[in-house]
Amino acid sequence: MKRRVLISRLATTAALLLAPLRALATWNRSAFESALPDEALRAAFGRSDTQPAVEIELKLPTNAYHGDLVPVMVSTRLPQVTRMALLVHDNPRPLAALVVFGPRALPELATRLRLTGSSLVSVVVESNGSLYRNSQPVRVILDGCRGEPFEAARS
């Protein structure tokens, strides 16, 4: 009898612990499958009108030897940041990351991006209901998908 109660309680506990993981697994499919940066922004934020902001610090190399692991660091001093998106404009699917921040979270992001070639990389931050953007071009020496020089890959 005690064994059945133990197994029942373990099963209930496991179900309660796994339920939040299922909720966190939802993602914005239309935003990540968009072929254009503005389409991805409209799908992720409901609009694509952005304004430039010097309060967003975007750190990434201007020249990347290999396009498959380009380090990116983003931080901002904008107040009440709720979401942040990373876009690689010349990738087949430009939206690379969409992060949702809690009310007390520090709006910082560090990751690595895969670039199919030289491209403009942008970060869009939603702060106080407005969208702000900062961008930087990155020149890729080797193609991230094929591993050959980027200029030769285009010809």
UniProtKB/TrEMBL annotation:
Pfam families: SoxY. This is Ig-like SoxY domain-containing protein. Gene3D superfamilies: SoxY domain (2.60.40.2470). InterPro entries: SoxY, SoxY_sf, Sulphur_oxidation_SoxY. The lineage of its organism: Bacteria, Pseudomonadati, Pseudomonadota, Gammaproteobacteria, Oceanospirillales. Keywords: Signal. Coiled coil: none annotated. The keyword Zinc does not apply. Residues 1-25 form the signal peptide. Residues 43-145 form the Ig-like SoxY domain.
